[in-house]
Amino acid sequence: MIPDDTFISFLKRNLVSDAAHDLSHIKRVVAAALRLSESEDADTEIVRYAAWLHDCVSVAKDSPDRKRASKLAAESGVAFLREQGYSDEEKLDQIFHCIEAHSFSAGIEPESIEASIVQDADRLDALGAIGIARCLITGAGFGASLYHPDEPEPENRPADEKNYIIDHFYEKLLKLEHTMKTEAGREEARRRTTFMREWLNQLFYEAGS
């Protein structure tokens, strides 16, 4: 069993500055993945290793390599596990798939319960209070405005997340609960999405829309 500190040391050497995909994000995904595993008949070792390594390669959201980020992380993560003396090839293949399939951008369908759990855990971190904070940090980093000055909620105009942070909720975040693969993931996603909708309603109220 590879200890958590070994993963943390590896990640600290490899992660670049990205507040939405930092070590705290990875720790939350690991914790969520292990919670989801409790209600599923899953191999927790595969889930744990894949969750720790799912973002071990950082690729900017606006990079042309963004869709390849999870594959690059899978390659790097499996190589790291081999360096640690982990040699179960069947499990390494499954860990590779879990990491590669976790990404929304990659569009890869999970083929195992372990991959479903890691994907759900990563998507849960884009929802709720943490999800809101990550969205605001990321959007501000790209220089986007908080919301459209004339129509904060994109009802009669196309959503435009590149220019308005709030529009990202409508292009992606509010849709994530319907992509969850596990029952526990769907239940938690519903709770977090409800909170986000309430927050948006309050924002629109304060914005006068």
Characterise this structure.
- The chain is mainly alpha-helical and 209 residues long.
- It has 2 domains: 1-108, Cyclin A, domain 1 (Orthogonal Bundle), CATH 1.10.472; 126-209, Methane Monooxygenase Hydroxylase, Chain G, domain 1 (Up-down Bundle), CATH 1.20.58.
- It is 57% helix and 0% strand.
- It has 9 helices and no strands.
- The chain has helices spanning 4-14, 23-37, 44-53, 69-83, 89-101, 113-124, 128-141, 167-171, 183-207.
- Helix 2 packs across helix 6 (113-124), helix 3 crosses helix 6 (113-124) and helix 5 (89-101) runs parallel beside helix 6 (113-124).
- It is globular, with a radius of gyration of 18 Å.
- The chain starts with a helix and ends with a helix.
